[in-house]
Amino acid sequence: MSVYHTTRHTIHPQDFKGYDTAKLREHFLIENLFLPDSVQLVYTLYDRLIVGGVQPVTGPVQLETFPTLRSENFLDRREIGIINVGSDSTVTVDGQVIELKAKEALYIGKGVKEVIFHPAPQGGARFYFNSAPAHHTYPTKKVQLSEAETVEMGSLENSNHRTIRKVLINSVVETCQLQMGLTELKPGSVWNTMPAHTHDRRMEAYFYFEVPEDQVVSHFLGEPQETRHIWVKNNEAVLSPPWSIHSGAGTSNYTFIWGMAGENLDYNDMDKFPITDLK
Predict the structure, then answer these.
(1) Where, by residue number, does Zn(2+) bind (predicted)?
(2) 197 marked as binding residue
């Protein structure tokens, strides 16, 4: 089997307040998402979201089920969103070969039996994915960047000029609960998702990439009046409970993928907090 997984349990915000650096990183940071010829994933009990990475190098890698799912196939009761974070490559979905260029997305619905990730001819294939439980089958759909719902936000003066590309949301593709998108920081900007917010109806995961090897991002999490931070390197992800803010500031500009699962598909369903109220 080429699928390697761990499980993360939910944390009460009162417990969170007492965590030291090691505990914060153990429960919320996801490292080593990309190892050759394998699927690396974390099964989290926050809305049962799965966060994973695939790096096919010497041959195709199949997305297989694992014991925690108690299913014959990975997608028997799940949907999945895949974003290419490496070189142009292909994914085979029940025999259909789909080309994915860098940063293009692929939605695959419940009931698909076989998903295979292929190496890139030039090397450097990497796929990041989120998967959530699904109650209905929606068709497989590839989303190019030109098809994304794209908005510009922030300003260079506030160090948060960014482009948000909503690739897997209900205005672009039908899903049960999964939503994903990319946010690209402009040169000279470092802050993402500021002012910060929470949403009790959805959890969220951030995957940071295109972070220069000698740079890092400080990711902020916790209740608005009780925040903590985790230093994050390139190709690492952070889990965000529904009660937690999710924001970051880098030592350079970067790109990150946000993924959400929960009880609704309303992108704007969030509780915002003034910057000056954060503690």
Answers:
(1) 197, 199, 204, 246
(2) yes
